[in-house]
Amino acid sequence: MSFSLNFIQFCFFELLMFVTINCYIDENCETIPTEIHVTKEEYDEMGSLVRSCSGEVSVNKCEGICNSQVQPSVVTATGFLKECFCCKENYLRERLVTLTHCYDADGLRLEDEDRAIMEVRLREPAECKCYKCGDYSR
Fold first, then answer.
1. CB 98 within 8 A of CB 81
2. Residue ranges of the chain whose pLDDT lies below 50
3. 110 phi and psi, to 5 degrees?
4. I need a labelling partner for 137 at 20 to 30 A (CA). Which of 9, 73, 105, 117 fits?
């Protein structure tokens, strides 16, 4: 009986190692370009809308697969050891984008040079990698 139980435990361990090793091969968290629609409104000191500008902007985003695993554990209270990883930004960069479709409070397109465009500051991922989920300390 002891031999068959040891053999089953050994087989389970080997299967777990095989699955874990194969999962690590598939990890691919990366920075990829995407396009988003941005709208920014400008208000005067009284809170009235002065103008609204919008446009399509090319930005980077993080996307991909990170390895996570759950395995039995006699040490943890739940009986399982969980290691979860998420694809997140490693570095952010700040840049200015130009919105070229600007309208006044009545919805009329603005044509004068000073008000027809708006520059907006945004932050985007410059590099992405896998981080332990819930780790906000960085």
1. no
2. 10-23
3. -85, 135
4. 73
